[in-house]
Specification:
Chain A: This is Leucine/isoleucine/valine transporter permease subunit. Chain A: It is found in: Cell membrane. Chain A: It comes from Roseovarius gaetbuli. Chain A: One of its GO terms (molecular function) is branched-chain amino acid transmembrane transporter activity. The complex is a heterodimer of chains A (319) and B (285). Chain A has 319 residues and is mostly helical. Chain A is built from 14 helices and no strands. The mean pLDDT of chain A is 87. Helix content of chain B is 74%, strand content 3%. The longest helix of chain B is centred in the first third of the chain and has 31 residues, at 2-32. In chain B, α2 packs across α8. Chain B has 285 residues and is mainly α. The chains are: A mainly alpha (319), B mainly alpha (285). The interface between A and B is large, with 43 and 42 residues.
Chain lengths: 319, 285
């Protein structure tokens, strides 16, 4: 009961903080980064479902963001569908592609899955770069419309409006991830992570659950990508490569894999850390890699894990 | 027909590089169960190093390769000791994430030391043989021969030597190997030294046949794993067959379908094998 209360207080405080954040930020650029970080929260929650809870590293989250981003942009351009509809459809397009790759790679065990997803991210990148007729290649797609009518109730061109829009989606998706994890399906996913052979032995077809986790995680990615496309009004293949998929993995590990709060912290970490490392531009990759290695060795449970350990210690000391 | 044979020979050359990368990966995976993702970047580091010794310090190509091999082996041992050993008893997913972090670090180091420009290792091997209309550049022929010799040497080492036996024993059953007096702390070091040496050779081949540039290593390691998926994990013949199949498929795809999409076609082949023969072409069911 005590921990439940504590968790509840944590999320309430965090939510209030996120609602007040735009009022506290003086520099517009930081508001922009915060919007990006919230978009990454959605993608990282998806990544966490497959990586953190199910225990399978997927290296294609940025690729799925790309599929989501391009599908909402292209549907908007080639049809009269309103923005809210294309954003809603984008995750389903992404799910289709996830099903196509997940089915063969998840039916075999071990590391095949990671490698196949990584190769798939490369394929997505190559197609986005070379299929000029559809994607305009490296130049990218410009003029992606903002949601809502020009003279509507909200001014979508305003960063603050978009911030609150993304915040609502991020909160909803975080809640959805929490619901999935608490459900019977989520419990099975955790069981697969802990002992897949045992799950198979008691008569559960583990691959169905793994495929479910993978497709859902892809849908989170697709949604994040779609929201990103309408936020920036411009997309090109560059940010949907393997390097960004590694960012998603880093976000989950740093924040705390297999926890709901982890991806939130991790997403802000991977968006803001590069900004602070700007002074060391060429060292950034090295530092980033070093952080990933050290974090995995010394705090495999991430920031959330370290914090809960400390709080438990503190709590014991008091009584 | 001549055109087909020409493309197949090109495919065998690049396939030879894939085989060497895959051999390194498969020994590490067999012994430690680690998907050593940094292998491609480390291999490119070896290629860069050879380039640097040849152009910067005026070493002969052979000397440059030898020194790079030594440096590479030391690096491989350090990677095992400092990065993989601490997570040896943790969940396998941790080792894989460490591997991803290592990849970023080595890629970063390559950028820091050798820059963004692509480099080509200079060789004096510019003759071209012509057999019945099929042209084989001298360099390409030597690469094929060298790859074949390395595969042979590796097979003999694993099959015939005492250390090779110990490696196979650890791969087969770690606990039993310990009981038989195999030192399971030194075997991983040996494995990493050998696999990195094979990788450096592959890096030199890539650097002299094509070019080394940022990102090439990551592409190469994915190809290496694709080879393992094609051929079946943990076997030398599997790596050889898988590497050649992938190399030849790519060359034919590039020659007759589209060079921009050759990697996509390689991916489709990999997925098809997974669907119909998940244990790989040479793997046991």
């Amino acid at each position: 009961m005590m921990t439940l209360n504590r968790t509840f207080i944590f999320y309430a405080v965090a939510l209030v903080g996120f609602i007040l954040l735009p009022q506290l930020i003086a520099v517009k650029y930081y508001l922009h980064l915060s919007v990006l970080a919230l978009i990454w929260v959605i993608a990282a929650q998806g990544q966490n479902l497959i990586q953190g809870y199910t225990g399978y590293v997927s290296i294609v989250q940025a690729g799925f963001m790309g599929i989501g981003a391009y599908s909402t942009a292209l549907m908007g351009i080639h049809s009269d569908m309103p923005v809210w509809l294309t954003i809603t459809l984008a995750p389903f397009v992404t799910a289709f592609f996830a099903l196509l790759t997940g089915y063969p790679s998840l039916r075999v065990k071990g590391h095949y899955f990671a490698i196949v997803t990584l190769a798939f991210n490369m394929v997505i990148f190559i197609v986005l770069m070379n299929f000029h007729e559809l994607t305009q290649g490296e130049a990218g797609i410009t003029g992606i419309p903002k949601p809502g009518a020009k003279d509507g109730l909200f001014n979508w061109r305003d960063r603050e409006t978009y911030y609150y829009f993304v915040l609502i989606i991020a909160v909803l998706m975080t809640a959805l991830a929490a619901l999935i994890v608490r459900s019977r399906i989520g419990q099975t996913l955790i069981a697969i992570r802990q002992n897949e052979d045992l799950v198979g032995a008691i008569g559960i077809a583990a691959w169905k659950y793994k495929l479910f986790a993978f497709v859902i995680s892809a849908m989170f990615g697709g949604l994040a990508g779609a929201i990103y496309a309408h936020y920036q009004s411009f997309i090109n293949p560059e940010i949907f490569g393997v390097a960004q998929s590694l960012d998603a993995i880093l976000a989950v590990i740093i924040g705390g894999s297999g926890t709901i709060a982890g991806p939130i912290i991790g997403a802000f970490f991977v968006v803001f850390l590069p900004e602070y490392l700007r002074f060391a531009d060429s060292f950034r990759l090295i530092l980033y890699g070093l952080v990933l290695v050290l974090a995995t060795i010394f705090m495999p449970r991430g920031i959330v894990g370290v914090t809960t350990d400390l709080m438990a210690k503190w709590g014991r000391g008091k009584t | 027909m001549v055109e087909v044979i020409q493309q197949i020979i090109n495919g065998v050359a690049i396939g030879g590089v894939y085989v060497l990368i895959a051999l390194g990966l498969t020994t590490v995976f067999g012994i430690l169960g680690i998907a050593h993702f940094a292998h491609g970047s480390v291999s490119m580091f070896g290629g860069y190093l050879t380039f640097f010794f040849v152009t910067g310090w005026g070493f002969s190509l052979l000397l440059a390769i030898l020194v790079s091999l030594l440096v590479g082996m030391v690096l491989g041992v350090l990677i095992e000791l400092l990065a993989y050993r601490p997570v040896r008893d943790a969940n396998h997913i941790n080792a894989f994430i460490v591997a991803l972090g290592l990849t970023m670090m080595v890629e970063g180091l390559n950028l820091e030391f050798f820059g963004h420009e692509q480099v080509v290792i200079p060789t004096n091997l510019s003759r071209v043989f012509n057999i019945g209309g099929v042209t084989i550049p001298e360099l390409r022929l030597y690469v094929i021969i060298a790859a074949a010799l390395l595969v042979l040497a590796m097979t003999l080492f694993v099959e015939k030597t005492k250390t090779g036996q110990a490696i196979r024993a650890v791969a087969e059953n770690r606990d039993a190997a310990i009981l038989m007096g195999v030192n399971v702390n030194t075997i991983p070091l040996v494995v990493f030294a050998i696999s990195t040496a094979l990788g450096v050779c592959a890096g030199v081949m890539v650097g002299s046949l094509f070019a080394i540039a940022p990102g090439i290593g990551e592409g190469l390691v994915v190809k290496g794993f694709a080879v393992l998926i094609l051929g079946g994990l943990g076997s030398i013949p599997g790596a050889v067959v898988g590497g050649l199949v992938l190399g030849i498929t790519e060359a034919l795809a590039a020659g007759f379908i589209s060079s921009a999409y050759k990697d996509v076609i390689a991916f489709v082949v990999m997925i098809s094998v997974l669907l119909f023969r998940p244990q790989g072409l040479m793997g046991k069911a």
